[in-house]
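In the laboratory, one determines a bound structure by crystallizing the protein with its ligand and collecting diffraction data. In a computational setting the workflow is compressed into a single prediction: the sequence and the ligand go in, and a structural description comes out. We illustrate the idea with adenosine-5'-diphosphate.
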Amino acid sequence: MVFPNGTVALKEANLEVAPGEFISLIGPSGCGKTTLLRLLADLIQPTSGQIRIGGKSPEEARKSRAYGYVFQAPTLMEWRTVLANVMLPLEIMGFPGPERRARAEKMLALVGLEKFARHYPWQLSGGMQQRVSIARALAFDPQLLFMDEPFGALDEITRENLNLELLRLWRETGKTIVFVTHSIPEAVFLSTRIVVMTPRPGKIETVIPVDLPQPRTFETRETTRFFELATAVREALRKGHGYEVAE
Ligand code: ADP
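The predicted complex, in C-alpha coordinate form:
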Protein backbone atom coordinates (compact mmCIF):
# COMPACT_ATOMS: atom_id res chain seq x y z
CA MET A 1 0.00 0.00 0.00
CA VAL A 2 1.57 3.30 -1.12
CA PHE A 3 -0.05 6.57 -0.03
CA PRO A 4 -0.15 9.54 -2.45
CA ASN A 5 2.73 11.20 -0.55
CA GLY A 6 4.95 8.20 -1.36
CA THR A 7 4.76 6.54 2.07
CA VAL A 8 4.93 2.77 1.64
CA ALA A 9 2.70 1.64 4.49
CA LEU A 10 2.31 -2.06 3.71
CA LYS A 11 4.28 -4.58 1.72
CA GLU A 12 4.10 -8.36 1.51
CA ALA A 13 1.04 -8.63 3.68
CA ASN A 14 -0.42 -12.05 2.87
CA LEU A 15 -2.96 -13.44 5.24
CA GLU A 16 -5.92 -15.78 5.13
CA VAL A 17 -8.46 -15.75 7.94
CA ALA A 18 -10.91 -18.61 8.49
CA PRO A 19 -14.48 -18.06 9.72
CA GLY A 20 -14.70 -17.96 13.51
CA GLU A 21 -11.06 -17.02 14.08
CA PHE A 22 -9.92 -14.28 16.44
CA ILE A 23 -6.94 -12.66 14.76
CA SER A 24 -4.82 -9.95 16.35
CA LEU A 25 -2.55 -7.66 14.37
CA ILE A 26 0.33 -6.51 16.56
CA GLY A 27 3.32 -4.30 15.83
CA PRO A 28 4.91 -0.98 16.77
CA SER A 29 3.16 2.32 16.04
CA GLY A 30 3.19 3.21 12.37
CA CYS A 31 3.72 -0.34 11.07
CA GLY A 32 0.47 -0.34 9.10
CA LYS A 33 -2.01 -2.14 11.35
CA THR A 34 -4.73 0.47 10.93
CA THR A 35 -3.96 0.73 7.23
CA LEU A 36 -4.51 -3.02 6.86
CA LEU A 37 -7.82 -2.82 8.71
CA ARG A 38 -8.95 0.19 6.67
CA LEU A 39 -8.12 -1.68 3.47
CA LEU A 40 -10.22 -4.64 4.59
CA ALA A 41 -13.09 -2.28 5.45
CA ASP A 42 -12.95 -0.44 2.10
CA LEU A 43 -12.16 2.85 3.86
CA ILE A 44 -9.11 3.12 1.57
CA GLN A 45 -8.22 1.28 -1.65
CA PRO A 46 -5.03 -0.71 -2.16
CA THR A 47 -2.48 0.49 -4.70
CA SER A 48 -1.58 -3.14 -5.43
CA GLY A 49 -2.62 -6.60 -4.31
CA GLN A 50 -6.01 -8.15 -3.74
CA ILE A 51 -8.44 -8.51 -0.87
CA ARG A 52 -11.38 -10.92 -0.71
CA ILE A 53 -13.90 -11.06 2.10
CA GLY A 54 -15.96 -14.23 1.88
CA GLY A 55 -15.31 -14.20 -1.87
CA LYS A 56 -16.39 -10.55 -2.22
CA SER A 57 -14.39 -7.37 -2.80
CA PRO A 58 -14.16 -5.05 0.23
CA GLU A 59 -16.62 -2.70 -1.54
CA GLU A 60 -19.18 -5.48 -2.07
CA ALA A 61 -18.64 -6.65 1.51
CA ARG A 62 -19.21 -3.11 2.80
CA LYS A 63 -22.38 -2.70 0.73
CA SER A 64 -23.78 -6.00 1.93
CA ARG A 65 -22.90 -4.95 5.52
CA ALA A 66 -20.72 -8.01 5.99
CA TYR A 67 -18.71 -6.44 8.80
CA GLY A 68 -18.85 -4.01 11.69
CA TYR A 69 -16.02 -1.61 12.57
CA VAL A 70 -15.06 -0.49 16.06
CA PHE A 71 -12.81 2.57 16.22
CA GLN A 72 -10.20 3.53 18.81
CA ALA A 73 -12.59 6.08 20.34
CA PRO A 74 -16.28 5.23 20.91
CA THR A 75 -17.48 8.20 18.72
CA LEU A 76 -20.97 8.20 20.21
CA MET A 77 -23.46 11.02 19.69
CA GLU A 78 -23.78 12.82 23.01
CA TRP A 79 -27.35 13.99 22.44
CA ARG A 80 -28.66 10.51 21.67
CA THR A 81 -29.41 7.86 24.26
CA VAL A 82 -27.41 4.65 24.29
CA LEU A 83 -30.27 2.85 22.52
CA ALA A 84 -30.59 5.61 19.91
CA ASN A 85 -26.84 5.44 19.25
CA VAL A 86 -27.02 1.71 18.57
CA MET A 87 -30.09 2.22 16.36
CA LEU A 88 -28.40 4.91 14.27
CA PRO A 89 -26.85 2.71 11.53
CA LEU A 90 -30.19 0.90 11.16
CA GLU A 91 -31.99 4.22 10.93
CA ILE A 92 -29.62 5.38 8.18
CA MET A 93 -30.26 2.18 6.23
CA GLY A 94 -34.03 2.67 6.56
CA PHE A 95 -34.90 -0.27 8.81
CA PRO A 96 -38.46 -0.02 10.18
CA GLY A 97 -38.77 1.41 13.71
CA PRO A 98 -39.78 -1.73 15.61
CA GLU A 99 -37.04 -3.82 14.01
CA ARG A 100 -34.46 -1.11 14.77
CA ARG A 101 -35.41 -1.16 18.39
CA ALA A 102 -35.51 -4.96 18.68
CA ARG A 103 -32.09 -5.36 17.08
CA ALA A 104 -30.51 -2.59 19.14
CA GLU A 105 -31.92 -4.01 22.36
CA LYS A 106 -30.59 -7.45 21.49
CA MET A 107 -27.10 -6.08 20.81
CA LEU A 108 -27.11 -4.05 24.02
CA ALA A 109 -28.01 -7.21 25.93
CA LEU A 110 -25.10 -8.97 24.22
CA VAL A 111 -22.65 -6.41 25.62
CA GLY A 112 -24.40 -6.43 29.03
CA LEU A 113 -25.81 -2.91 28.83
CA GLU A 114 -29.56 -3.50 28.50
CA LYS A 115 -30.16 -1.56 31.73
CA PHE A 116 -28.43 1.52 30.32
CA ALA A 117 -30.49 1.86 27.13
CA ARG A 118 -31.99 5.19 28.23
CA HIS A 119 -28.77 6.70 29.55
CA TYR A 120 -26.71 9.22 27.62
CA PRO A 121 -23.08 8.51 26.70
CA TRP A 122 -21.74 11.09 29.17
CA GLN A 123 -23.37 9.13 32.00
CA LEU A 124 -21.27 6.06 31.19
CA SER A 125 -17.64 5.16 31.93
CA GLY A 126 -15.13 4.93 29.06
CA GLY A 127 -15.34 1.14 29.09
CA MET A 128 -19.14 1.18 28.91
CA GLN A 129 -19.04 3.69 26.05
CA GLN A 130 -16.75 1.37 24.12
CA ARG A 131 -19.21 -1.49 24.75
CA VAL A 132 -21.95 0.68 23.25
CA SER A 133 -19.80 1.22 20.17
CA ILE A 134 -19.33 -2.57 19.91
CA ALA A 135 -23.12 -3.03 20.11
CA ARG A 136 -23.50 -0.40 17.36
CA ALA A 137 -20.96 -2.21 15.16
CA LEU A 138 -23.03 -5.38 15.64
CA ALA A 139 -26.32 -3.68 14.72
CA PHE A 140 -26.52 -5.44 11.33
CA ASP A 141 -25.42 -8.69 12.97
CA PRO A 142 -22.40 -9.03 10.66
CA GLN A 143 -20.33 -12.21 10.71
CA LEU A 144 -17.13 -10.18 10.74
CA LEU A 145 -15.92 -7.56 13.20
CA PHE A 146 -12.94 -5.25 12.66
CA MET A 147 -11.65 -3.65 15.84
CA ASP A 148 -8.92 -0.98 15.88
CA GLU A 149 -7.36 -0.81 19.36
CA PRO A 150 -10.79 -0.47 20.95
CA PHE A 151 -9.48 -0.72 24.51
CA GLY A 152 -6.22 1.22 24.07
CA ALA A 153 -7.39 4.28 25.98
CA LEU A 154 -8.76 2.37 28.98
CA ASP A 155 -7.08 1.53 32.28
CA GLU A 156 -5.58 -1.92 32.69
CA ILE A 157 -8.33 -3.38 34.92
CA THR A 158 -11.17 -2.18 32.68
CA ARG A 159 -9.28 -3.47 29.69
CA GLU A 160 -8.84 -6.95 31.19
CA ASN A 161 -12.55 -7.08 32.03
CA LEU A 162 -13.52 -6.03 28.54
CA ASN A 163 -11.14 -8.59 27.06
CA LEU A 164 -13.10 -11.28 28.94
CA GLU A 165 -16.41 -9.78 27.83
CA LEU A 166 -15.29 -9.70 24.24
CA LEU A 167 -14.25 -13.36 24.34
CA ARG A 168 -17.64 -14.29 25.77
CA LEU A 169 -19.36 -12.39 22.97
CA TRP A 170 -17.08 -14.04 20.40
CA ARG A 171 -17.87 -17.53 21.76
CA GLU A 172 -21.60 -16.90 21.97
CA THR A 173 -21.93 -15.43 18.49
CA GLY A 174 -19.25 -17.31 16.50
CA LYS A 175 -18.11 -14.04 14.86
CA THR A 176 -14.80 -13.67 13.08
CA ILE A 177 -12.76 -10.88 14.66
CA VAL A 178 -9.74 -9.00 13.33
CA PHE A 179 -8.34 -6.95 16.20
CA VAL A 180 -5.56 -4.36 16.18
CA THR A 181 -3.49 -3.92 19.34
CA HIS A 182 0.00 -3.03 20.46
CA SER A 183 -0.32 -4.88 23.72
CA ILE A 184 1.35 -8.30 23.87
CA PRO A 185 -0.76 -9.64 26.80
CA GLU A 186 -3.99 -8.50 25.13
CA ALA A 187 -3.06 -10.20 21.85
CA VAL A 188 -2.12 -13.46 23.59
CA PHE A 189 -5.20 -13.51 25.79
CA LEU A 190 -7.71 -12.84 23.01
CA SER A 191 -6.43 -14.49 19.88
CA THR A 192 -6.53 -17.79 18.13
CA ARG A 193 -3.64 -16.47 15.99
CA ILE A 194 -1.38 -13.43 16.33
CA VAL A 195 -0.07 -11.66 13.25
CA VAL A 196 3.22 -9.95 14.11
CA MET A 197 4.04 -6.99 11.86
CA THR A 198 7.33 -5.15 11.31
CA PRO A 199 7.86 -1.37 11.16
CA ARG A 200 7.46 0.53 7.91
CA PRO A 201 7.04 -0.70 5.33
CA GLY A 202 4.76 -2.97 7.32
CA LYS A 203 5.21 -6.64 6.58
CA ILE A 204 3.79 -9.72 8.20
CA GLU A 205 6.80 -11.02 10.10
CA THR A 206 5.34 -14.14 11.73
CA VAL A 207 1.97 -15.66 12.50
CA ILE A 208 1.81 -17.27 15.94
CA PRO A 209 -1.00 -19.75 16.71
CA VAL A 210 -2.28 -19.40 20.28
CA ASP A 211 -3.10 -22.81 21.73
CA LEU A 212 -4.36 -21.62 25.13
CA PRO A 213 -7.53 -23.59 25.97
CA GLN A 214 -10.99 -22.00 25.68
CA PRO A 215 -12.82 -20.58 27.48
CA ARG A 216 -10.08 -18.32 28.75
CA THR A 217 -10.37 -16.89 32.25
CA PHE A 218 -8.50 -14.49 34.53
CA GLU A 219 -6.28 -17.43 35.52
CA THR A 220 -5.23 -17.95 31.89
CA ARG A 221 -2.92 -14.94 32.22
CA GLU A 222 -1.06 -16.65 35.04
CA THR A 223 -0.26 -19.89 33.24
CA THR A 224 3.19 -20.90 32.02
CA ARG A 225 1.89 -21.28 28.48
CA PHE A 226 0.63 -17.67 28.52
CA PHE A 227 4.13 -16.42 29.38
CA GLU A 228 5.74 -18.67 26.77
CA LEU A 229 3.44 -17.28 24.09
CA ALA A 230 4.01 -13.69 25.23
CA THR A 231 7.75 -14.33 24.97
CA ALA A 232 7.34 -15.77 21.47
CA VAL A 233 5.45 -12.65 20.37
CA ARG A 234 8.05 -10.36 21.96
CA GLU A 235 10.87 -12.21 20.20
CA ALA A 236 9.08 -12.03 16.85
CA LEU A 237 8.65 -8.28 17.35
CA ARG A 238 12.32 -7.90 18.20
CA LYS A 239 13.32 -9.98 15.18
CA GLY A 240 11.36 -7.52 13.02
CA HIS A 241 13.14 -4.67 14.86
CA GLY A 242 9.93 -3.88 16.70
CA TYR A 243 10.07 -1.38 19.51
CA GLU A 244 7.76 0.83 21.59
CA VAL A 245 5.59 -2.16 22.35
CA ALA A 246 3.28 -1.72 25.33
CA GLU A 247 3.63 -4.30 28.10
P1 ADP B 1 -0.39 1.68 12.87
O1 ADP B 1 -1.87 1.48 12.89
O2 ADP B 1 0.38 0.40 12.85
O3 ADP B 1 0.11 2.58 13.98
P2 ADP B 1 -0.90 3.09 10.39
O4 ADP B 1 -1.52 2.04 9.56
O5 ADP B 1 -1.79 4.12 11.00
O6 ADP B 1 0.01 2.42 11.51
O7 ADP B 1 0.17 3.88 9.51
C1 ADP B 1 1.20 3.23 8.76
C2 ADP B 1 2.09 4.26 8.11
O8 ADP B 1 1.40 4.88 7.03
C3 ADP B 1 2.51 5.36 9.06
O9 ADP B 1 3.83 5.71 8.79
C4 ADP B 1 1.57 6.49 8.73
O10 ADP B 1 2.18 7.73 8.98
C5 ADP B 1 1.35 6.27 7.24
N1 ADP B 1 0.02 6.75 6.81
C6 ADP B 1 -1.19 6.35 7.30
N2 ADP B 1 -2.20 6.96 6.64
C7 ADP B 1 -1.62 7.78 5.72
C8 ADP B 1 -2.12 8.68 4.71
N3 ADP B 1 -3.44 8.85 4.52
N4 ADP B 1 -1.21 9.34 3.94
C9 ADP B 1 0.12 9.16 4.13
N5 ADP B 1 0.67 8.31 5.03
C10 ADP B 1 -0.19 7.63 5.82
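The CA atoms of residues 1 and 46 lie 6 Å apart. Keep in mind that any predicted model is a hypothesis to be tested, not a measurement.
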